[in-house]
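I am writing to request your help with a piece of structural work I have in hand. A protein sequence and the structure tokens that stand for its backbone fold form the material at issue. Please examine both parts with care and let me know of anything in them that strikes you as inconsistent. The record follows directly beneath this note.
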Amino acid sequence: MAWLSPVFPTGGFAYSAGLEQAVADDLVSDEASLQSWLETLLTHGSFWNEAVLIAATHRQEDDVESLSALATSLAPTAERHRETLDQGAAFLDAANAWGSADLPRETPLPVALGAVCQSASIPLIDTLTASLQTLISNQLQAAIRLSLIGQTGAARLLAALEPMVLATAARAETSTLNDLGGSAFLADMVSARHETLEPRLFLS
């Protein structure tokens, strides 16, 4: 939980994973549409793929170099590519205070997280649950900053999404790399559009 806390540089202060553009395009306009957006990311989008990559790395399903190449190739846009690499490097720099695994700074975040947690003997299901919870929390923090919802609404959504977070973590625990994939095309499209959004609060 310390490694996934807002103290770490992987918090949601800089990245919205395309949510900022979705709000600008009025695709996400209230609490209900935000919940639907996040549910899609969890079950059919980038959050699911990140969970599969964490699990594969934690189980040492392949070497870190190959998994890193796979993770970066799955980034749908330049911004998401930069996001996963920058957050991976920042995570590894901060985790060094605990004597984290010796990994290249170019390691994408889900691979870095899976490798470090495996090295520290943190159970996979705990790693997955905490990671998915953090992804959702970061999105809710972004939604607050975008004035889409308030703190009460964010807390309400966090509670509503908790069963899906737990279910997705359990599903990812038994996944393999063959389970990678998604159909959240609109999320990928707004991520690409965000590259030219001005003005903007977030880097993605």
Summary: Residues 20-193 form a domain with the Urease accessory protein UreF fold (CATH 1.10.4190.10). The chain has a mean pLDDT of 91.
